[in-house]
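[job 0412] stage=fold_complex status=start
inputs:
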Amino acid sequence: MNTNEKQNCTDSENACCKGMGMDRKTCDEVLHQLRRAYCDEWLAFLQYWTAAQVVKGVMRPDMSCELMEHANEELGHARMLADRIQTLCGEIPLTPQEIMENCNCAFVAPSDPCGYRIMCQSIASERCAIAVYNRILKMIGDRDPVTARIILEILEDEVEHEYEFRQIKEDIDASREALGMGKPAGK
Ligand SMILES: [Fe+2]
Ligand SMILES: [Fe+2]
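[job 0412] stage=fold_complex status=done
writing structure:
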């Protein structure tokens, strides 16, 4: 990009932020957080989708179904974030490498297919997402109400996801207790 092109780009980004009712600094801060959250959503999608394929245990159909449902919702969140990023004239990460390098929450491979363990990992992943979205909401404050509304909508889904995974885990706990088996070791 030559100097003229760079200047044109900066001018149009400034105009874009202004058009959205924000100064450039706020716009950049919001975009930075949205891009990171977008990476988290792709990794959450991949984590749950893969877990749905390999999960094992007496509640396999329920767990697989729940994981697939959540995977699809994470993908929906990625789309909502991509839309908002582009509305603010930002760019979405384009490669898996960029996604891996810019996430907040780690990808947890379902290397142990035990359903109980996958539920525990999924609960932890949802709690990470909840902490991230709460932090973004706090950062935005009243500076960008449209993004704040989108983040709140996603946050509500993450809270529900955490609850649904936790319910399955508690059902497994209750079944084991009823059979006098106690909790799985180390969980
Ligand atoms: Fe999500
Ligand atoms: Fe989620």
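[job 0412] summary: Helices lie at 3-19, 24-54, 60-87, 96-101, 115-140, 145-178.
[job 0412] exit 0
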